[in-house]
Amino acid sequence: KTASGQYRLQQKPLVEYQALRDNANAVSDNNRSLDNNSFVYNSASKSYEIVVKFSLKTASEAGFKIHKGDENYALVGYQKAGKKIFIDRTHLGGNVPAYLQRSEFAIPDIDNSNVELHIFVDRNTIEVFAGDYRIAGTAMIFPCENCTDLEMYATGGAATADVQIFPLKSIWNENFTNGISSVYFNSDEISLKQIDKKLFKVINIENGSARFFDLSGRLIKRFPIINPESIIDLSDVDSGIFLLNIISGSKNKTFKINLV
């Protein structure tokens, strides 16, 4: 509910993403001056998470050049005029149709001088959240092979930024060929045992629930967890890699499952 009494829908990133942060190689940069200039972070990672607060003093725009190399890059940022976040693919090269080159999303009731953005980037996708997670935008990108730099910039005047950049680890384990691998958890008490190719037993949990997803995030099945050795039967599911999320009270654990 906003200060003006309106209800707004929020869309937040999954908290499980935090388990993928490569904290050992994270970058934290506070009060970085962006007075009509830019700052380049050389990144070997093609997937990362950005948490930033821009203080736009006299600047008209601030943001990032994503997967930059030479004159090729995508833009994501905030524009004071119209109070908009944007994703701009004009500088990616190739034949991007005019109607797909730039997407803009207006943010209601925002402080036009202090803007917080939460951005996720992988090789071919940008996703941005703003306005206390009331506004979200996403776009596909196709950068050049060697375009890996990340550049933070401001135009039109003075600005500063407090930024955290987390390289993101892959959810794929190179040694994961079949069976079970935990992706995210806040409790070691939840265990999952494979008792057949497509049959699993939940251990140590009762009075909970399990949700079964494909890798696009589509919910496929739900299972009640009613005793300490509840059975998850996936015999009617085709082979592939899936996610199984188990919740009991405040306990939460997600498993990656390879069905063969």
Walkthrough of the structure:
- There is one protein chain.
- This protein is mostly beta strands and 260 residues long.
- The chain contains no helices and 20 strands.
- A six-stranded antiparallel beta sheet has the order 1-12-3-8-9-10, with no helix packed on it. The chain has a six-stranded antiparallel beta sheet with strand order 2-11-4-5-6-7, with no helix packed on it.
- A hairpin with a 2-residue loop joins β14 (191-196) and β15.
Q: Could you give a short description of this structure?
A:
This protein is mostly beta strands and 260 residues long. Helix content is 0%, strand content 53%. The protein contains no helices and 20 strands.
Topology:
Layout: E1 27-33, E2 38-41, E3 48-56, E4 61-69, E5 72-79, E6 84-88, E7 102-106, E8 114-122, E9 125-130, E10 135-140, E11 149-155, E12 159-167, E13 179-185, E14 191-196, E15 199-203, E16 208-214, E17 219-225, E18 229-233, E19 240-248, E20 251-259
Antiparallel strand pairs: 1-12, 2-11, 3-8, 3-12, 4-5, 4-11, 5-6, 6-7, 8-9, 9-10, 13-20, 14-15, 15-18, 16-17, 16-19, 19-20
Short key terms for the protein model shown above:
single chain, 260 residues, mainly beta, six-stranded antiparallel β-sheet, 53% strand, elongated
Q: What is the ordering of alpha helices and beta strands?
A: EEEEEEEEEEEEEEEEEEEE
* Outline: elongated
Distance between the termini: 47 Å
Class based on secondary structure composition and strand pairing: mainly beta
Helix content: under 10%
Uncertain ranges: none
Number of helix segments? 0
> What is the alpha-carbon Rg in Å?
21 Å
Beta-strand content? over 45%
Largest sheet, if any? 6 strands, antiparallel
Mean pLDDT equals: 85
Q: Strand tally, please?
A: 20
**Sheet with the most strands: spatial strand order:** 1-12-3-8-9-10
